[in-house]
Design goal:
324 residues; eight-stranded antiparallel beta sheet; four-stranded antiparallel beta sheet; binds adenosine monophosphate; binds magnesium ion
Length: 324
């Protein structure tokens, strides 16, 4: 028996409190990156929020593996020829490779062929053949990405920046707002949050973390000030059930199967969206013990909330967390 469950738009986090900035907020929304995007600016205009949303579209057109003519699509279809790419793409790619190294391979952007076998986006996903997974895994690994100047060439593998793109794009959209003189804003890219500036009244941003076990409840909320980013990786964001077993979309690069690390979700608070996004995926794969060791190497600015499979919560780092 197979039950397909497809939840691409689940928001893993929700911003609880926006009030506090002095001027009236202006919110603009769109659908991009396979999810709902909203940009709320304080002391800015609808034009500012729209400019940030346009930047999201521009970045998606570069980083999406599915969009025809995107940098990633051209890299993947270049048949081992070098493809010239935008500085943003190069930056995101090199950043993902660095996080991959620091997380001992838990983040691996060359898993695309394996992810495609799982085909989470189809109406009726099924567990792929084990031998096909092994074969596809043999053609993965960061050493298969050859970067020379502004060109990227693949050696038999294909890439997917899905684990870092929302974070990197959130950073870009926030940069657009800063360049337009906006200094207080909140961007929500399908649960990936980027805040710009502190609230003038001194109250903190409060972000709720959705339960990975049902879409209704929250495990708690985190509070912080200033320009930060929050990303959550959760098995509940995209999955299907076959014969009573749940298969989610975050893969263990060692096996090509959904990561079973004892964690149901990982939320990371960092200074940059791309780091929060990359680390939440990687730490979900690694599990609690490695997560702790890896976060130590990143220093005090980064903290995390881990929800274990048994529903208990572990906070790592200097983080203001209030359980629900
Ligand atoms: P996120 O929601 O940020 O945790 O990213 C998950 C997405 O990244 C998946 O839907 C895949 O497209 C891709 N992905 C899955 N597993 C990995 C992995 N171990 N390393 C890098 N990307 C992955
Ligand atoms: Mg991620």
């Amino acid at each position: 028996m197979r039950t397909a469950v497809f939840a691409p738009m689940v928001l893993a986090v929700m911003v609880l409190a926006l009030c506090g900035c002095q001027s009236q907020p202006v919110t603009e929304q769109s659908f991009a990156l396979d999810t709902f995007i909203s940009v709320t600016v304080y002391g800015g205009t609808s034009g500012d929020a729209q400019a940030a949303l346009s930047r999201v579209d521009e970045c998606e057109a570069l980083l999406s593996a599915h969009a025809q003519g995107s940098d990633v699509e051209r890299i993947n279809s270049s048949q081992d020829q070098a493809a010239t790419v935008d500085a943003l793409t190069l930056d995101a790619l090199q950043f993902a490779l660095r996080v991959g190294e620091k997380t001992h391979g838990a983040l691996d952007i060359t898993l695309y062929d394996v992810s495609k076998l799982w085909d989470y986006k189809s109406e009726t996903p099924t567990v792929p053949d084990g031998a096909d997974i092994i074969r596809a895994l043999e053609h993965t690994g960061p050493e298969r990405i050859i970067i020379k100047g502004d060109t990227v060439q693949m050696d038999g593998a294909h890439i997917d920046l899905g684990a870092v793109a929302k974070g990197a794009i959130g950073d870009e959209a926030a940069k657009t707002l800063s360049q337009r003189g906006v200094n207080c804003a909140l961007l929500n890219l399908g649960g990936n949050i980027v805040t710009l500036g502190s609230k003038p009244d001194g109250t903190k941003w409060v972000v709720a973390i959705e339960s990975p076990f049902d879409g209704q409840n929250y495990v708690g909320s985190i509070s912080f000030s200033g320009s930060k980013a929050v990303a959550t990786s959760s098995g509940a964001q995209r999955y299907f059930v076959q014969d009573g077993v749940t298969y989610h979309h975050i893969l263990d690069p060692k096996t090509g199967w959904p990561a079973r690390s004892g964690l149901a979700s990982v939320t990371v608070l960092a200074d940059e969206g791309r780091l929060a996004d990359a680390l939440s995926t990687a730490l979900f794969v690694c599990g609690e013990e490695s997560a702790e060791q890896i976060l130590e190497t990143y220093g005090a600015e980064i903290s995390a909330v881990l929800v274990r499979d048994d529903g208990t919560v572990r906070v790592i780092g200097d983080l203001e967390f209030a359980p629900a």
